[in-house]
Amino acid sequence: MNRSKINTKIPIVGGPCSAESRDQVRALGEWAAKQGWNKFRAGIWKPRTRPGGFEGMGERALDWLVEIQRDFQIEVITEVATARQAEQALKAGLNGFWVGARTTVNPFYVQEIADVVQGAPIEVWVKNPIHPDLAHWEGAIERFQKADVKEVRAIHRGFYAFRSSVYRNSPMWSIPLGLKKDFPQLEMYCDISHIAGNIKLLPELARQARHLDFEGLMIEIHNQPDKALTDAHQQIRPENVPHLMQHWDRADANSQKEMDEILRQEKMNWNSAIDSEIDRLKQFRKNIPDQMRELKPDDSIS
Ligand code: PEP
Ligand code: MN
Question: Is 101 in the pocket of ligand 1 (CB under 6 A)?
Answer without folding.
Answer: yes
